[in-house]
Predict the structure of Aldo/keto reductase.
Amino acid sequence: MRYRTLGTAGPQVSVVGFGAMTLAPVYGGVDEGDAADTLLAALDAGVTFVDTADIYGMGSSEDLIGRMLEKRRDEFVLATKFGGNQDEQGILVPGMGRPEYVRRALDASLSRLRTDHVDLYYLHRLDPTTPIEETAGVLGELVEAGKIGGYGLSEVSARTLRRAHAVHPVTALQTEYSPLQRGPEAELVPACAELGVTFVAYSPLGRGLLGGQVRAAGDLEAGDWRRNNPRFQGGNLERNVSLADRLATLAAEQDVTTAQLVLAWLIDRGVLPIPGTRKAANARANAEAGDLALDASVFARLEEIVPPDAAAGAQGNEAYLANLDTA
């Protein structure tokens, strides 16, 4: 496993992280024993960056991490998020960027995680009712107080990133980025490089499309969030599976899995991917991507197979897209 600095002066983290949304029942049911085994497998394979959020399973992901890793807290860098709560219509609850909310949310997360600090604390979604400067200000105060090591932003525009960074330096920016989601390359990736902000890629395997787990709608459980995602519906799904199959052929030629190929591509681009999984074997295999050395020509072929905008369907439904900061 290789390692890199988080932000400009943060801790060293593994170049492959672990996205802990899969430890909560977002993609269908979760067996706690399997979830715990998967989390421990990732750490034992050299992963030192664990990413969760207070809304994953209404705190269940944080709670599991706290119970399983309390005695191993010094072995990994811990990130969590606040500010992603939605109402029944999928609209963000207003006021989650206000200082008083931020402080309450952090205290609640620390309690579930059984720790006195988190290394990285993200604003999960931009609060349209609170200026980003106000949220960045309180997050900066929490850094100075030692309750968080640094702060990050998730699914914000380059403009919002710059505004926040001017108040207090941003450590990391997280957004969806994969061969099927190339939009960040236009402005966000360059802005992060300019400011010294680590770009963290969630859903780097296309929410399972590039990991081989999903080939038909029937592969998704009844409670799976992806059933409402346009990329997993009808002809869109067929088109995207076809793209994944072509990448699988390229990966097989390199004697690696499709997931390992995609993760290595992201790492080569200076991005920190945080794949999630519910299987210990997948966690170990994903970690192996952190030590792969593939030729640049392989990555060029990947980009030929899946050029920008090749994916069929939007990255989320209308309600999901409405909560993203794209201005």
The chain has a mean pLDDT of 95. The two ends are 37 Å apart (CA to CA). The longest strand covers residues 77-82.
